[in-house]
Amino acid sequence: RVTVVNMAMSPLAVCAAALLLALAAGGAMAQDVGSTITQAMFESMLPNRDPFYTYDAFITAAKTFPDFGTTGQLMKRELAAFFGQTSHETTGGGSQGGYKFIEEINKSDPLYYGRGPIQLTGQSNYRAAGDALNQPLESNPEIVANNPVVSFQTALWFWMTAQTPKPSCHNVILGNWTPTDADRTAGRLPGYGVITNIINGGVECGMGQMPNDPNADRIAYYKRYCDMLDTTYGDNLDCYSQKNFAA
């Protein structure tokens, strides 16, 4: 007599197998940003922030960009980099002074001046961000300073979006950007420094080996957040010797 063995897997076993396969294929499973940046962590990172910048607004905005800070082995580094750069953009001084300001103090444009975590600036950026987010930001740029969710969304839009010849900050910090020969000649190598170049390279980059205060401030914030999130810094943290992308 032949005994037939039932090879069907239980639903639980199927789920377990799928989990193991996903871990083997992708390294780290995608997860919600809130599992890394908890409210307690947010409060610790930004103890002196303006009340405008709420945890709930950040989490809601992050859901608009599901790949932000959720996938790959370097997702914690991405979150540290995002908060490092935006803390400098809104700094009130010192390594715990991030997110103190909503609007640019010394306004560079009568209408399209810096607002929000990334200090979104320029008519073209307001237009492009508005189109992407389905918000009338070109005609009503003050929305960025009045609606905290939209404010965070504009910062995340800038972070996630490549603007040729600049790569996206997201791809740079995750190691998904391959510099061209021209980039290498200009000293632009993968690392946190290239993100500074993307954001404000015309002012802060290409000044030689001498450190400058804005670069140092961005790096100090980044290292603080990397330490808090228990992740590594990576290489090429400054852009002192990088030519800016417009050069």
TrEMBL record:
SUPFAM superfamilies: Lysozyme-like. GO terms for molecular function: endochitinase activity. It catalyses: Random endo-hydrolysis of N-acetyl-beta-D-glucosaminide (1->4)-beta-linkages in chitin and chitodextrins. Residues 150-160 form the Glycoside hydrolase family 19 catalytic domain. The keyword Disulfide bond applies. InterPro entries: Glyco_hydro_19, Glyco_hydro_19_cat, Lysozyme-like_dom_sf. It comes from Aegilops tauschii subsp. strangulata. GO terms for biological process: cell wall macromolecule catabolic process; chitin catabolic process; defense response to fungus; polysaccharide catabolic process. The active site is at 89 (proton donor). The keyword Ribonucleoprotein does not apply. PANTHER family: BASIC ENDOCHITINASE B, CHITINASE-RELATED. Its EC number is 3.2.1.14. It is an enzyme of class 3 (hydrolase). Residues 1-30 form the signal peptide. This is chitinase. Pfam families: Glyco_hydro_19. Keywords: Carbohydrate metabolism, Disulfide bond, Glycosidase, Hydrolase, Polysaccharide degradation, Signal.
